[in-house]
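Field guide to reading this record: the first block holds the primary sequence, the second block holds the structure written as discrete tokens, and the final block holds curator observations. Each block starts with its own label. This record concerns Alpha-1,4 glucan phosphorylase, catalogued under organism Methylomagnum ishizawai.

BLOCK 1 — SEQUENCE
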Amino acid sequence: MKEFHDADAASTNPKNIGELKTALVNRLIYSIGKDPIDTHERDWFFALAHVVRDQITLRWMESMRQYYLSDAKRVYYLSMEFLIGRTLDNALLNTGGYEAFRLALEDMGMNLDEIGGEEEEAALGNGGLGRLAACFLDSLASLRMPGFGYGIRYDYGIFSQRIEDGWQVEHPDNWLRYGNPWEFARPEVLYRVQFYGRLVETQDTDGQRRYQWLDTQDVMAMAYDLPIPGYGEGTVNNLRLWAAKATRDFELRYFNEGNYIKAVEQKTSSENLSKVLYPDDTTQMGRELRLKQEYFFVSASLQDILVHFGTEHRDLAELPDEVAIQLNDTHPAIAIAELMRILLDQHGLAWDQAFGITVRIFAYTNHTLLPEALETWPVRLFERLLPRHLQIIYDINQKFLDEVGRRFPGDGDLIRRVSLIDEDGGKRVRMSHLAIVGSHKVNGVAKLHSELMQSTIFRDFARLFPDRFINITNGVTPRRWLHQANPGLAGLITEALGDSAWVSDLERLRGLVPLAGDAEFRSRFRTAKFDNKARLAGLLKQRLGLALDPASLFDVQIKRIHEYKRQLLNLLHVVTRYNRIKDQPTAAWIPRTVILGGKAAPGYRMAKLVIKLANDIARVMDRDPALQGRLKLVFVPDYNVSRAMELIPAVDLSEQISTAGTEASGTSNMKMTMNGALTIGTLDGANIEIAEQVGRDNLFIFGLTAGELAELRRRGYQPWDYYHANSELRRALDMIASGYFSPEEPDRFKPLVDSLLMGGDQWAVLADYADYVAAQEAVDRLYGDGEAWARQAVLNVAGSGWFSSDRSIREYAGSIWNIQPQA
Ligand SMILES: *Cc1c(COP(=O)(O)O)cnc(C)c1O
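BLOCK 2 — STRUCTURE
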């Protein structure tokens, strides 16, 4: 690929700037309908977004035309979540228009950053899984690969979080309030999605049994398209999101009864389907509306895929040569049964041919080993909502179990374990088993995760289908997470490497290795980090009235709040450090700012209590003069993609401290490494590969390994032993349990401490405490030598190339999808 320049020289000449200014004013007047003498900044944001979208749209049509003409195989990425964030800056940087638009706005007395601040986040996801989908779309487009996203256009994305009196309070995310300037509504792209109803069995002329699904309650799926601009010479791909619309028939039925109001009510009720994103990423909610959302977007997407394929005039046997479908977790796994239904009932294919086609098309990405997150649905619900799909799942299961029985005669327990139906206590459909049996590849998202997936939850399947299981380690897009989020460091890297080719070829960062030993480079690197910290301090001052010292060590843990991620371990270290400082107030402490951020699922009591604990500890410490300039704790509210982009460039120490064997991959660990943070982490998820890539000496690894923890549990883990053996741990726990940080309600945090001491400490917080605190001491020692720290930080950036999502996507394209970049 030829090198792409951030600011095309031609685009910043006076003539072009003049044209942009005219275009902006025209859009303001004709598209937004505002008089330039009486505007809000938001009006200018919308005008700007429209001008930028115009430019992208031409390239997008070119890309679509090219894909059409080459008739290349396509991948469709099905995901319930796309955590995109803001689009404006990303689009400007990917297309090279940033500088020209900045100048045009400056000429008009405006500031691009301020105008960009008016954009609402597209927060259609919970966390890592949804953000991965967004990074993958960026990489597919940047690599010129024919890849299309399908998801749901939720009216409300993940809730916005406010902190009131230290507690999380959820507020609705009304992101479409002012409209979404990036999307194209496609009222003509409309598909019928059926629910409920009854089955009628018929006989074909050739004696085959067929089924008709009748008397269904239907909802329409309407398409909205979001163009996804690749970087530089990349293509512009498409993300198609479905919104629920009422059918006309529905209304008619009630109209005929003369019940107008009832008809309108019915209309709103079916449109509720795409109203809101479920805000929990780690437990299975099992609500009917959720299963409806899943089938809704799967059904619409498959209809759309088949329309494009041209089922009317093509042989369906060719479908796997034209189409690959990736299932992002099991949420869209019902697509396997849906494609079977279409092939059998609508196209009359024989079972074996239909199933052969289906398996060649689908692949499934597993994201979690936590049993409570594995998706299952009551058979009774399935039967009511999707009767034909349940029947097909039973048929898939029957044939699969027959085969297992032939290969392993007499092993009834194996049959019970691998069945698509869990027969224990109320029968349930196991969506992961459906996804495995109906796919040709199943991947985990980091080496350890993929190994554990095959040795634990899917062990039987790994034995049955040894070639099906592979690893593809996650990645993040360097465009958003380094080039865009950290212009200071990005500029320095470009200067040091001689060009910006690293933005689309991140392995080139290896070229920085020799510069880790270059004092002049290190000094500039340190300045860039300091400037980012000062900038963050400024933002938090303005937004929250906080005073952060950019010279202190910025120690950051930002991610969803969950017990397995162990924010509580972090807080135990904070309390321990607090006690140490109080005990020796005159010692030479390395000043530290500990920053925490993340949302808790609204129904997750323990996680919400952790947020309150962080805020209560912060309050006590803020009032204590002994702590001033030594230790500060901050909880940043409403962690989202934009917050992440502000925080990550300013991180010194990246907290990746999940219980070994629980964090499938993690991706904030990658973003922070790329931005020159050092990791303090367990040997979990992709931390292991980060250690391999940047060198084990350049991060702080602590704690039990997954294997050691399994062994400890076999012997019988006793959290009390750790409590009794470690006086600092005991002191910290006693303070929290007895109300030291919550004198107005001394028992407030007892449930947290009880979960550790009485509840068996499921996540081994106490087992890892001492080693964690020791690793934190090593952090202080290294940070005390700024040059030594900077050397290792440079080596972290230099070793982060492997974690580009471009690498992940190339692996998917090569080993699963069999798709090629377009010329
Ligand atoms: C990257 C990212 C995540 C994932 O973070 P992990 O630490 O890997 O869980 C979650 N939320 C947002 C907003 C992100 O940008």
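BLOCK 3 — OBSERVATIONS
The chain is about 50% helix and 15% strand.
The longest strand covers residues 217-229.
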